[in-house]
Amino acid sequence: MKFYITTPIYYINDIVHIGHSYTTIIADIMARWKRLNSFDVFFLTGTDEHGSKIATAAKKKGKMPLIFCNDMSLKFKEAWNLLNISYTDFIRTTEKRHFSAVEKIVQILFDKNLIFKKKYEGLYCVGCEKFYLPKDLDEEGYCVFHKTKPLIQSEENYFFKLSTFQNLILERITDPCHEEYIEIYPEERKNEIIGKLKIGLENISLSRNIVEWGIPLPFDKKQTVYVWIDALINYITGIGYPKNMTEFQKYWPVNIHLMAKDILWFHAIIWPAILMSVGFSLPKKLCVHGFFTLNGNKMSKSLGNVISPQELVSKYGVDATRYLLVTIMPFGHDGDISWEKLTLKYNIDLANNLGNLISRIVKMAGKYFNFKVPQANFDLKLVKKIVTLLREDFIINMNSMQLHKAAQDLQNAITLVNKQIEYDAPWKISKTHVHELASYIFSYLQAVDIIALHLLPFIPVSAEKIWHTMGASNDINKIAKKYFTDFIIPKSGFSVSDSQLQDTEGLFARIV
Ligand code: ME8
Description:
By secondary structure, the chain is of the alpha/beta class. The protein has 18 helices and 16 strands. Helix 11 (about 310-315) crosses helix 12. It binds ligand ME8. Ligand ME8 binds next to strand 1, helix 1, helix 7 and strand 12.
């Protein structure tokens, strides 16, 4: 089975911040999770490099647009490497392969008579790269996302007959029995779109004649393709359209387009209309998350209130940054964050709960068994409890992208082992009862092994470290893939008797 997931392609005029990182880490966790469940995963991310916003940013830096784009898109790649993002491909809209796809799609729309020329005057927000009607702006006429005043732009453009798709789209996002049903999650976002759709759809400009930095229209080279039409097409270029149709047909339709609420309109209305026009299947699911806010404001370079992923990594490390970002706010809701909140969560979940569990087990194994996995028949009770706890909720939460809840399930499992240790109090048992001690410690090790398998998508490097620390020597990824297929634990467990426990120095040390 295949699983195709995408992030938005990010505008490169902005520096990479934790908003972009949040979306990309969620997509990465889902991609890793699906790989562990034996799916053939395609995970696409990339950068959106055309349009007036980018051209202006390049000019400000005194750079040619493409040079500027090369530099900036590299910064996104570097950030994703830092955060251990396992994307399959990184698409840039300035690539040749993307030009071919955009030209082809736009030509099809033209040939199908879905494009017409018209003089237009409207309020354009460069931040959103979108024309607005006065009713869409706040009371003072400002863009609600960028807090800037859209200016009147007037030009003769080519228009896409979006309005003809109103009922077709409405049907596809409201009727779960429809063959081409598009699920929008969460429900409130879907209702928002339905509400807007019912008011009616305006035809939209498909080209710009005052924006040079873009892909020329194949049928009128004086105009360039409107940046949003250009950008949405990345989702099919990335999997091979139009050159490699076998690859394209293997992965399309996309399983999940992931994004924040600011750009749902484009994905829920404009993108399906284009796909329907050219006769392609529709996305299966649009997953929409909220915004990180700082003091109630959306984070963006123009507002000057960004936190970069590099800042988080230098304080917490890579894995903790991944974990903290996706658990600090519930998927689908906004969350106001602060360094204090992040540090508090780090200390509670990672240092005090997980880190403490690992270090106390290693200490006991060190004291009683010279840092070796003791020989024992493991007590299946504790392991079974962990397996049940995680099988019931964790998997449902992962599959429905409720990552903060799945992480809470893991925290509950970790707490359960910590509590079991306190209940057993192995330190009260005399060293002469070596079998009893061995059996306790052996079962703790096995319980943590199970937890490590589940931690893998969230904190891949640390999960592997924990796995080896517990004396489990095989390739954790291979074992996890098998475990998530049949849920069978080998009779002798995962940690191998007599193998050496490894050092845990530096694993989620407390931060003050
Ligand atoms: O809209 N909190 O690019 P963009 C959470 N190029 N997520 C945030 C965020 C925040 N404060 N800020 C940004 C574009 N994001 C277009 C997309 S796709 C065909 C074209 C994330 O750089 C979130 O995923 O403005 C949001 O939807 C996206 O970045 C917008 O990125």
